[in-house]
Design goal:
This protein has about 80 residues and is α+β, with helices and mostly antiparallel strands. It contains 3 helices and 3 strands, in the order E-H-H-E-E-H.
Length: about 80
């Protein structure tokens, strides 16, 4: 499914000028039909999956209990 620049910027939650800049740098693939750029939505699935994994790992790390310091017990 192809999306316009406006739809893609909403889908990825990034500003349109940033998206256009990435297209011009060839960091994002797009098709220009003479009037507008069209972007294939499927090219972002891997990126979004990776971002979800990173968010999950960060939440796990934040929720991990702080280990006790072994030096605290030896202060007698």
């Amino acid at each position: 499914m192809y999306l316009t620049v406006k739809e893609t910027s909403e889908f990825l939650s990034i500003p349109e000028p940033t998206l256009l800049h990435l297209i011009h740098q060839s960091r994002i693939r797009a098709v220009h039909d003479g009037e507008q750029y069209l972007l294939n939505r499927d090219q972002f699935n891997d990126h979004l999956d990776q971002m979800e994994k990173v968010k999950f790992l960060i939440e796990e790390w934040k929720n991990e209990p702080i280990p006790e310091d072994i030096d605290i017990k030896d202060e007698d």
